[in-house]
Amino acid sequence: MDAVPALDEPLKKVLGPATAKVMAEHLGLHTVGDLLHHYPRRYEERGQLTHLADLPMDEHVTVVAQVADARLHTFASSRAPRGKGQRLEVTITDGSGRLQLVFFGAGVHKPHKELLPGTRAMFAGKVSVFNRRLQLAHPAYELLRADSEEAVESWAGALIPLYPATAKLESWKIGKAIQTVLPSAQEAADPLPETLREGRGLLPLPEALLKIHRPHTKADIEQARARLKWDEAFVLQVALARRRHADAQLPAVPRRPRPDGILAAFDDRLPFSLTEGQRKVSEEIFADLATDHPMHRLLQGEVGSGKTLVALRAMLAVVDAGGQAAMLAPTEVLAQQHHRSVTEMMGELAEGGMLGGAENATKVVLLTGSMGAAARRQALLDLATGEAGIVIGTHALIEDKVQFHDLGLVVVDEQHRFGVEQRDALRGKGKQPPHLLVMTATPIPRTVAMTVFGDLETSVLDQLPAGRSPIASHVVPAADKPHFLARAWERVREEAGKGHQAYVVCPRIGDEEDGAKAKKSPEDEAEKRPPLAVLDIAEQLARGPLAGLRVEVLHGRMQPDDKDAVMRGFAAGEADVLVATTVIEVGVNVPNATVMVIMDADRFGVSQLHQLRGRVGRGSAPGLCLLVTEMPEASAARQRLNAVASTLDGFELSRIDLEQRREGDVLGQAQSGTRSSLRMLAVIDDEEVIAEAREEATRIVAVDPDLERLPALRTALDALLDEEREQYLEKG
């Protein structure tokens, strides 16, 4: 039987079952290779050698000194009530001054035996003050057997790696385990092709692993990091390049619009001309649709940049070519809204088969989970016969019963709300893979990562259509300046007085079930108050500062028909103020709404705040967004809100968001940033490395898509793409 390669050796065999179990459960480390790739988070210097006469407070220092005396005291304490507590006090001197060391409890035995008067040693620890005297509590120490200057210098200058650790496994224990497996690093297979590595002056992998775990100098750390970042960027780029290469081999039906078809008729009836950006992006999409392999395009556009119009023109091009288009929306409210705006924009072109419908019209159907049985049957029939060219719906579109006559294009709105399986199920409904257009209003972490890494071709809409109004944003510090909050409600009244409308957004609904489930952030714990709730705030406003105005509520647990009725009523101007949860975050379009007040704004992410804010300023009157918070001025939460208030640039905000949240697992489903296949690489800081790695990967995959000439790279790819992630990319 073949021996297991050194890096695939289970940790159980090398470190013993107890340690291996903790590493597997708490750090996800199973093999020697996993442990070698568990890199230090940072490095602690034991400190330059310091004279006792000039010790700095609160800093880590290393001193060389001689023990002057050592005394063991016993004392009574809550843990040792019978006077059995032990404290060892050791006084050391280096000729320039004296310093007290103190050890407690079980920690006294070893130093009591070793630190005898006259012993010379190096001591490292943090300087503190006790009874007006400087001391080191529980310092690390190393006895100096011979008075070797070299030993003193090398020990004091050493860089101590500090590892991402858990309560069950301290950093120094991980360090010891790594010391045990480090010799295996020599056998690490190098995934970078030699020409690439040498051309870029990168270390071989075994040397990089050695230097990251046991650096002698800071230059060692830099060199190792540069190399290991390249590994991550390159292997990931190869995975994505192979995905793009495979997509290019898939068959798809080319869909070209007819010169006198429904698209041309639609363009003729538009009351405005497209922006330069909309025209350019449409051309990119039409070029993709005309090819015989599936389009995979990401359309990023600022809130209100006209993405829906661009998507609708793409859908009409497919209808022209005899196919059907499906638009997938994350919520019923949004699906209904898209259906309304699409049928309004199309007019009689959406009345296919009806009296008064235009001659080249098609049918636009809505399909959601809450539709009545008869309407649903008719919609399903229209899709199966091809009568309906366009369908707009929620994930109800994915159910097995839904059959398409000829699905040519899938448009996914707000891509981050959909699981990959859901997108995949919809794409599986075409006879051949349909073209795919994914839209997002704010690049959110995974999308930014995928955009930088590029598994989809990207189009960006960064101009706002003419007639859009600017939005002013301000932070309202309710705790520091309560009169600012009072002024915020006055502004809402003023806007209502001019005939405009307002949104008030809260993080929580406010019935008991919801309160019990509300997760507490550390900030909640500090404040001891749950997030503000729609039902409570609506009542307080209607009775207090907004008395006399028509206040309505909207949240996710209302019946779909009720939600739709409230939204329609608000859009028709039947309410002045809508108090809502984030159900209004995406796509809700009420041009008459000019103010948004976001309560407990610090409980929302940057992208979410930007999305919410995009609901106002959609008409000709300027928009106002007020971010209400009780967080103190110096807090990170306040700085996040100041960033949102200072710019309307969603791309800039997505960078801030990503910096704060970390990347999440770029390939996996974790988006929180806790589990990441990226250990060294930071999507924001390392854009250059990623861009270069993408070029190299594309070049290599074009020549050798199966990586037959690069077995070590193939192995690294298999390790990165375990089965779950491989499928994830497959479906991407």
From TrEMBL:
Ranges where the Helicase C-terminal domain occurs: 484-659
Matches recorded under SUPFAM superfamilies: Nucleic acid-binding proteins (SSF50249), P-loop containing nucleoside triphosphate hydrolases (SSF52540)
Gene3D superfamilies with a match to the protein in the record: Nucleic acid-binding proteins (2.40.50.140), P-loop containing nucleotide triphosphate hydrolases (3.40.50.300)
Record field: transmembrane: none
UniProt keyword terms in alphabetical order: ATP-binding, DNA damage, DNA recombination, DNA repair, DNA-binding, Helicase, Hydrolase, Isomerase, Nucleotide-binding
MF terms in GO: 3'-5' DNA helicase activity; ATP binding; DNA binding; hydrolase activity
Domain (Helicase ATP-binding) ranges: 288-461
Keyword Hydrolase: yes
Main EC class the enzyme belongs to: isomerase
Any one Pfam family match given in the protein's UniProt record, by short name: Helicase_C
EC number of this enzyme: 5.6.2.4
GO BP term, example: DNA repair
Catalytic activity of the protein: Couples ATP hydrolysis with the unwinding of duplex DNA by translocating in the 3'-5' direction; ATP + H2O = ADP + phosphate + H(+)
Family the UniProt entry places it in: Belongs to the helicase family. RecG subfamily.
Cited function: Plays a critical role in recombination and DNA repair. Helps process Holliday junction intermediates to mature products by catalyzing branch migration. Has replication fork regression activity, unwinds stalled or blocked replication forks to make a HJ that can be resolved. Has a DNA unwinding activity characteristic of a DNA helicase with 3'-5' polarity.
Protein name in UniProt: ATP-dependent DNA helicase RecG
Source taxonomy: Bacteria, Bacillati, Actinomycetota, Actinomycetes, Kitasatosporales
